[in-house]
Design a protein that fits this description.
By secondary structure, this protein is an alpha+beta fold. It has one domain: Gcn5-related N-acetyltransferase (GNAT) (Aminopeptidase, 3-Layer(aba) Sandwich). Helix content is 16%, strand content 32%. It has two helices and four strands. A four-stranded antiparallel β-sheet has the order 1-2-3-4, covered by helices on one side.
Length: 100
């Protein structure tokens, strides 16, 4: 039996304050930016928490991106957008182990 809940979309009930990982930047992004980015729909954030707990122990996020092209396609009157691969972040506890 797993000690963790399956990944689920970030919700207001998830507790982010105690989350720590090896990357200070990824820790800060989750705690300071993730809820707003997820709420506006620009990013989808999935979190993992322990069974019967709301403290987040790992997360994965992604967003679609595009880049405006300077070239115009033949016959087009407006610049085109070039799709880019999804950008993502993934983070878990330092050392990949279970958080205390």
């Amino acid at each position: 039996m797993s000690c963790y809940q399956p990944p689920e979309l970030l919700a207001a009930r998830h507790q982010l304050a105690g989350f720590r990982c090896r990357s200070l930047e990824q820790t800060a992004w989750l705690v300071e930016v993730a809820k707003q980015a997820h709420g506006t729909g620009t990013t989808r954030v999935f979190v993992v928490s322990e069974v019967e707990q709301l403290h987040v122990v790992a997360y994965y996020s992604w967003c679609l991106a595009s880049q405006r092209g300077d070239c115009r396609s033949a016959g087009a009157s407006a610049p085109w957008r070039q799709p880019l691969p999804p950008a993502h972040r993934a983070a878990g506890p330092p050392g990949g182990g279970r958080t205390p």
